[in-house]
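Supplementary notes for students who missed Thursday's class. We covered one full example, reproduced here. Read the sequence, then the structure, then the short commentary at the end.
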Amino acid sequence: MQNMVILGATGSIGASTLSVISQNPDTYRAFGLVAHSNVDKMLPLCEAHRPQIVHMVDEAAAATLRAALDPTLGIEVTSGEQALLELVTRDDVDSVMAAIVGAAGLVPTLAAVHAGKRILLANKEALVMSGQLFMDAAKASGAQILPVDSEHNAIFQCLPESVQQNLGFCDLNGNGIRHILLTGSGGPFLNTPIEQLKLMTPAQACKHPNWSMGPKISVDSASMMNKGLEYIEARWLFNANKEQLKVVIHPQSVIHSMVQYRDGSVLAQLGNPDMRTPIAHCMAYPQRIESGVEPLDFFTVGQLSFCEPDFSRYPCLELAIEACRQGQEATTVLNAANEMAVAAFLAGNIGFTDIAKVNAQCLQNLTCNSLTSLEDILALDAQTRQVAGEILSRMN
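Structure (token representation):
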């Protein structure tokens, strides 16, 4: 029996992880569930999965949940940063699903890395903000990093075992790999006239054609910032340079990503667009388990199409690729600026195309800081949020 802690248990990745656990109850246990403040979602999860510990980041939410839980379930409810760090580093915790969206997930995920846990990494911001620090910590502690993002998981599955076992420090060229091809659907605005993008609403941006995701990730998919963050994440996971990384628009989301080899071979991972597939793969690696996902029916798939991304349609993607080339400081700034801008868009305070403008202005304000510690990263993140807030206030 493997004990799992799920960071972001009330989100879409959390729900998919719990679904896979339910498919394999003799092998996996939801030992700890972590969420910010959503008591209404957490309460039924507690009753269904009976974790040993539930952690609510919001103290008032923890108190509400504690009062609502049936005491006979014997579930401990905690709050506060120290209790969270103690949970993810416990000796009886085997693996941690890192699925807290945004910068908020960095500290507990990195703590689990330092503790040498098996990390199922769904929080791409952890590597966007602290790539070198994160991978160095994993190497030092012996933590196993397994990518949950459907694209990175697809790439992982298409790589030789020698690369899989050396993430962050592998030699792609030495293993005959020419290109990593990150696929992206293009989001809901793939065919929207560019001049109309500024009129798009949060509801329209969140209506993804293929995937069911939370609001922040959905907006990032619409702007293709999500693909930009994945580009940065792939750089660190697979030790890839700019010549080795390419982005391909694939609207059907059937091919989740590909690896192109020197001999002309291209290996691709295909499947229905359901996050339970990569989650199950990471949970059981190197074995395979039931995920609850229906097999891909090639007779109903229809046509598969591909095209290059248009940076005039997706300026956020171009900003992310350029930030990746600039280095860790730029990607940390971009992530913080984007979180602020997307929140403002979802609140109805700015337009869709203003997201890229905020991100670009914050990158222009970047001063070269050396990020040698978690404290340096968090300080730059906070500084960027302040700058982004000032830019947003002038837009309102």
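Commentary. Residues 82 and 152 are 31 Å apart (CA to CA). The chain is about 45% helix and 15% strand. If anything here is unclear, bring it to office hours.
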